Structures are given as structure tokens and as C-alpha cells.
Amino acid sequence: MTTETPRLDRSSHPSTGFPGYSLPITIVMAWCCFVYLRKRLAPSLSNIAGPSPNSFILGNIPQLISEDGYDFHTDLARNYGGVVKLHAICGAKQLYVFDHAAMHSVLIKDEHIYNMPDAFLAANHLMFGPCLVSTSGQRHRRGRKIMNPTFSPARLREMFPILFGIAHKTNVTILEASVDSKNGETDMLHILGTTALEFIGQAGLGHSFAASRSGTLEGMKQLLFAAKRMIVPMQALPFLLRIAPSTFRRKLIDLVPLPDLHLARDLVDILDKNSRAILKGKREAIAKGGSAIIEQFGQGKDAMSLLMRADQLSEEELLGQMNVLIFAGTDTTSTAMCRCLQELARHPTIQAQLRDEVTKADAHGDIDFDVISTLPVLDAVCKETLRMYPPAVTSSRQASEDVMMPLSAPMIGVDNSTITEILVPAGTIVHVGIKAANQSRVVWGPDALEWKPERWLSPLPQTVLDANIPGVYPKLMTFIGGPRGCIGFKFAEMSMKVLLVVLLKEFEFALSNKEIVWKLGVAEAPTVEGKQSFPMLVTRIQG
Ligand code: HEM
Ligand SMILES: *[C@@H]1O[C@H](CO)[C@@H](O)[C@H](O)[C@H]1NC(C)=O
Ligand SMILES: *[C@@H]1O[C@H](CO)[C@@H](O)[C@H](O)[C@H]1NC(C)=O
Ligand SMILES: CC(=O)N[C@H]1CO[C@H](CO)[C@@H](O)[C@@H]1O
Known about the structure:
The protein is α+β, with helices and mostly antiparallel strands. It has helices at residues 23-38, 61-65, 70-79, 100-109, 118-128, 137-147, 153-180, 188-205, 209-212, 216-229, 231-234, 237-243, 246-255, 259-288, 291-294, 303-310, 315-329, 331-346, 348-361, 369-372, 376-388, 434-438, 441-444, 462-467, 489-506; strands at residues 83-87, 93-97, 114-115, 185-187, 394-399, 403-412, 418-424, 429-433, 507-511, 517-520, 524-528, 531-532, 535-540. Helix 7 (153-180) packs parallel to helix 25 (489-506) and helix 10 (216-229) runs antiparallel to helix 14. One 2-acetamido-2-deoxy-beta-D-glucopyranose is lined by residues 168, 171-172, 175, 502, 505-506. It is found in: Membrane. Pathway: Secondary metabolite biosynthesis; terpenoid biosynthesis.
């Protein structure tokens, strides 16, 4: 199968910051103002405290979506109660929420009222096609019902040896890379990114990206960062999708002088072409039947093969779901692994303790599926990393009607009165502060901001047990909760564990002296001097 590699001029678009404002953006924003002002906002949010807007037109949005926005999110968590008011475009108000009763309402109790924002659904539709992250309501429920079994515990058991096979290849890649390396540094982001893509490729798509050397990984990464930089003009998408036929939209995209939009267009074209080629290959193998299926990567047991045999999704939907698995499962997992290795490098005693545990368990060939989940230090290291460093920092929803938001503890309003619940007006966008919730001192105790796997090895504090945190992953918001919670959280956890078992047996990880700057994209990413990379000093353990 031939897949195309994107050739992209990376210097042609800004790597950080907010794009400049040209005529089309001004038009889009004027349109947004019109829509928001028409909806006139209920006064109920005026008493909620929050940071003052940076500008009238854009409010706090540039800070919220900035790639350098860690401090903004930290300040929100530190300086306000569990619900914070943000200023959005043209004076509209949004909420930033990390109170757990409020999160429970948004994600579970009143989930049918809080959809993914229209602009996100529309952008996801343009990028990926019809899929889980471009649909809501009934259509989304149908999609979940069809997709859920593809990552069930029985499937994970089947995928387990496939993941080990890939991790062993990664071991060899690291060996080669560290031999080739001039200064002893190995870029673990690239290696772990390729590995995570291969995990999803083989287990999810029955396809080896490593074998086809497609540019999917680079393309996906750049697409997500370009999409995030376009959040403001994206607000016009639901409107454009409604009025314009697709050929006209395409012309429009070509005409609008936004480098990021053109980059996104080219990337989407490449991803689409690759995905269609993969799907065609699978169709042919299924048509041939018998050994043609077994010869495929994943032996026909991957998620896509299951979906194709179940025959409930259209061709476009299959492509969409395929794109979304790549999109949702790659950068998130590789970033979490980078954070994991970073903390293990900072805590050599824990690294040694973990190495000891996995080496003993893995002494007679690969650890068994049932055994890997019983290793306490391995489990604690993964959970603590996912708590401290959730790869996605926020997740957004939009209220489709007026709704009351409960609070777990009263807050003080701007007028010094006590607020016990909030009337959220229809149309309000609510950002769930995943990171802020995970690190709450109220819940986790005074050491909430320290990476301490030990906290998982003894009974958790009563405040954690009482908090009733509404995550699909016990006690954490990292994978969100409710019907839109991450479909792949068990798969992601298993991927991390398999990699840690194989890599810690073989290597010792230390930090290089390069300064790592973490940027906030759709998932966070480590950079060195503006380029995505995560150099580490990797030494092979002798003996
Ligand atoms: C550490 C790794 C991961 C993290 C932190 C993570 C986190 C998340 C979060 C926060 C969401 C909710 C997004 C939103 O609604 O705003 C989500 C959704 C999703 N994730 Fe993951 N994810 C990870 C790995 C994976 C993997 C490996 C897969 C695929 C096997 C996957 C598949 C999905 C899908 C399909 C959705 C959309 C669910 C829906 O809208 O119904 N994720 N994930
Ligand atoms: C890693 O690769 C080396 C060289 O091929 C091999 O000797 C070693 O057993 C491998 N280790 C693991 C855990 O796969
Ligand atoms: C609220 O209380 C603070 C201190 O207790 C005071 O400085 C401030 O003026 C009060 N604000 C209003 C609106 O009453
Ligand atoms: C509510 C709360 O305690 N939030 C904490 C979340 O994490 C930030 C740092 O990222 C802390 O400063 C907050 O106090």
C-alpha cells in the first residue's frame, strides 16, 4: 500500500502565539458579535468572579487557547472558586469549571443539555468527517453504541500481545537511536509518538504506519496545533456549513488568506487520502477472506475490521471513526508517556523501584494480561502521572437551554454575597478544567502539586473518596466522564504499562540539560527552542 508523506514548509506558519488579524477575521468577528448580541445574555453570570478581559473583542480567549497558557490555567485554579467567569468574543460570557458538583452536572446529570460546542462539532466534521467528535445527541449515542465494543475488556486482551510486539520494536529503535546519537540524547517524543501511532494503527486500524512510512503522525500533530490557532475564526463554521455547499466552501478556504487554514486544508487532504487507502486495503483483504485477513496487521481483530464486519457504519462514517481514533489516541498517549519518563528521571529511586518490580514480573517472557494490572508501583506511577499531567487540559461543552449548575461548596460572588448555585443561560460555553480539578488541594491535600506515586499505594484521603469525582477513570478527570468520556482510557493505560515494562527493563532514563517548554495544544506537547521534541539521556542497563 502506498501512502503519501506530507511535504510541509514548517516555517510558513507561526509556531506560537495568536495569528494576526486580517479582513476576513474582522468580518467573521463582526458576524460573531451580531449573533452573540442578538442572543442577549441573561444577567445571572454577572455575579461570578473571574479575570478581567484583555480586550473587548476577544476577551480572555487568547489567554485560554494560548500555547503558553499554563499560568493562565493555574491562576484560574488558584485565585477563584470552583466556577470562574471568562470573557469571550464581543462581551459574551463563558464559564471555567472545576467544582466537582458542577462538573458532575455538566458531564453526567445534565449531559443531555451540554453538547460539544457547535463550532467544535463543525470543525471536527470538516477535519475528520462524520465521527464521535462531530456528532451529538442521538447520533452520538448511536456511534458510541457501535464503537464501545471495539475497546471492550475482551478486545483489550486480544490486543495485549500485539502491543508487546510493538514495544519490543521500540526497544530496538531506541537502541539504534542512542547508538547514532552524537551527544547521547535521544528524542523520546518522536519515538513514543511513532509507537503510540503504531499501537492505534495495529490494534485500532489493523494497519502498520511504521511499515508504510506515511506522514500521518507529523500531519496529525501539525493539524491539531493549526486547528487550535484557528479557534476564533472557527466560530463562523456552523454558519458556513449551513449556508454553503461543499464546493463553495472549498473555494472559500482557498480564497481566505489564513496560512493556518491552508495548512489545515493540505493536511486534511493527506490524512483523508491515507485513510481511504487503508480502508481500501482492508476491504480487499476482507473480500479475499481467509489468510488475507490473518496476514493483515492485527490479524483482522482490530477495531476497524470489527466495525466493517458489523456493517452498521457508512463508508464516510468508517473513515471518520478511523481518523478520530488516530487523532484522539496518538498525541495524548505519547505525551503522557513523556511526562512519565520525565518524572521517573527526576525521581531515580522510584525509577529503580519500578524497574525492580517489572523486571521480576517479566522474568519469564512477557507479563501476562492478568498480571500487569496487579503491579502496584506500575499502576501508581501511571495514575499519578495522569493526575498531575492530564494531556488534555480542558474540555468544552455548550448549554443548549437554561440550566441550574449546582456547587459542592458555596462561592463568594462579585457583590460579596454567597452563591450556592448558578443559572447558566442557554448558549453558554463551559470549559471543564481537567487539570485544575485533578490538582485541587482541597481534594488531594497540601501535597496536591507534587508527583507522588506513593499516594496511590496507601488508602487515599477521605476527601478524595468523598469528592465523587465524575471521571470514567476512577478519581481522575483526565479522561473526562459521562457518555462522552474517553473510549480508549483502558487502552491508553495498557499502552503506557506495556511500554514501561519493556523500556525500564532495558534502559535507564535521565534528563538532558536542554530546557523543555511544554506547550498547550489540543494535547500538551514538549518543545525545545520552539520545536516539538523531548530529548533524554538513555543508557542501556548492562547485566
Ligand atoms: C492518555 C491518553 C488519553 C487521554 C488523556 C484521553 C483523553 C480524552 C478526553 C479528555 C476526551 C474527551 C474529549 C472531549 O469530549 O472534549 C477523550 C475522548 C475520546 N478519546 Fe481519549 N484520551 C486518551 C487516549 C485515547 C486512546 C488511546 C483512544 C483510542 C483508542 C482514545 C479515543 C477517544 C475517543 C474516540 C474519544 C471521543 C469520545 C466521544 O466523544 O464519545 N483516547 N479522550
Ligand atoms: C531489546 O533489544 C535487545 C537487542 O535486540 C535485546 O537483546 C533485548 O532483549 C530487548 N529487550 C526487550 C525488553 O525487548
Ligand atoms: C467585598 O468585601 C471586600 C472585603 O471584605 C471589600 O473590600 C469590597 O469592597 C466588598 N465589595 C463589595 C461589592 O461590597
Ligand atoms: C482548586 C485548586 O486547588 N487548584 C490547584 C490546581 O493546580 C494549580 C497548579 O496547576 C494550583 O495552583 C491550584 O491551587
